[in-house]
TrEMBL record:
GO molecular function, one term: sequence-specific DNA binding
UniProt-recorded name of the protein: AraC family transcriptional regulator
Lineage: Bacteria, Pseudomonadati, Pseudomonadota, Gammaproteobacteria, Pseudomonadales
Ranges of residues in domain HTH araC/xylS-type: 237-336
InterPro entries the UniProt entry points to: Class_I_gatase-like, DJ-1/PfpI, Homeodomain-like_sf, HTH_AraC, INH-QAR
């Protein structure tokens, strides 16, 4: 389930001074990982100023300071971290990088600084693959965490003490926050603003940026077929195409799928789970969910027709599946996402 904040109101800490936010910069970081969250806090500072209240003092900082080139090629000016040692840092935010494996090699000294600084900061957060640098610093041991869906398996294998949440948009564990892929950093930043400044300010920021204050659904907003193709599931590619072409069949049982794959039911169930990370039944359900989402976005069919064409059988079963995976009803999904 997604981690969402429930009526947190204004934080109890004093608002007599701006809260100091430090965004950690390093070579080849993701531009949107950095600027998406920054824009949220910038808009929140404007909204707080309208109320005669302090907002945020933001710093983009690197170990040595100076110009830092992002993965996209834009150069960002940064201050040196040692200039902030006495700044009373409220929140540290770690952006991700497309090549996070190389970043973990290149940023050993930055990770050491992060480890020490997080002990003094009120909270520490990451965007997308920035979760890996938090994990490298030991901040996520024994905690649940989110990252980009395509990097979840890598995070789990590199840092087995971290409980990886495959579906969360963002996760809060005590004073540690992590978010999923790229734009999920905006969702997390809005939640941080709501915790600091209250719901009214967060709603004003969400409206200005034309985003949801609390986005429906998890990071299952990607292609089920694409995810399976990226995994070690080559032996089942043809089966997945066949499933996608037969979703109107309400009897896609393990026996039926095993027969199509040319395997015994028991061996099929075991091998499929090992190679894809999901049971056959769960995979079929997600294929049905994806097909229903596409039709709700693009098709004029009514909801019951879509439910039957995708193999749910009836609208109630489809509604239950949507609520379980996306935390939204099919009708509300159509209202928000239809084109």
């Amino acid at each position: 389930m997604n981690e969402m904040i429930q009526d947190v109101g204004v934080a109890t800490e004093s608002m007599s001074r701006p809260r100091t936010l430090v965004f950690l910069a390093y070579p080849q970081m993701g531009l949107l990982d950095l600027t998406g969250a920054q824009t949220v806090f910038w808009a929140a500072t404007k909204a707080m100023a309208e109320r005669g209240l302090p907002g945020y003092a933001m710093h983009t900082a690197s170990l040595a300071g100076g110009l830092m080139r992002t993965a996209e090629g834009l150069v960002v000016d940064t201050c040196a971290l040692d200039r902030l040692d006495g700044a009373g840092i409220d929140t540290l935010i770690v952006p991700g990088a497309p090549d996070i494996r190389q970043a973990m090699i290149d940023c050993v000294d930055l990770v050491a600084w992060l480890r020490a600084a997080s002990l003094k900061a009120r909270r520490t957060a990451s965007v997308c693959s920035g979760t890996f640098l938090m994990a490298q610093a030991g901040l996520l041991d024994g905690r649940r965490a989110a990252t980009h869906w395509a990097m979840c398996d890598l995070l789990r294998s590199r840092f087995p003490l971290v409980e990886v949440d495959l579906d969360a948009i963002f996760v809060q564990q005590d004073a540690v926050w992590t978010s999923a892929g790229v734009s999920a950093g905006i969702d997390m930043a809005l939640a941080l603003v709501e915790a600091d400044c209250g719901r009214d300010v967060a709603l004003q920021v969400a409206r200005e940026l034309v985003v949801f204050l609390k986005r429906p659904g998890g990071q299952a907003q990607f292609s089920q077929m694409l995810q399976l193709q990226m995994q070690d599931s080559a032996g089942f590619d043809e089966l997945h195409v066949w499933i996608a072409e037969h979703l109107d069949d309400t009897h896609l049982t393990i026996d039926r799928l095993a027969q199509q794959a040319g395997m015994s039911p028991r061996n099929f169930a075991r091998v499929y789970k090992r190679q894809t990370g999901r049971t056959p039944a769960k995979a079929v359900e997600l294929f049905r969910l994806e097909a229903a989402r596409r039709q709700l976005e693009d098709s004029p069919r009514n909801i019951d027709q879509i439910a039957r064409s995708c193999g749910f059988g009836d609208e109630d079963r489809m509604r239950n599946t949507f609520q379980r995976h996306l935390a939204i009803s099919p009708r509300d999904y159509r209202n928000r996402f239809s084109r």
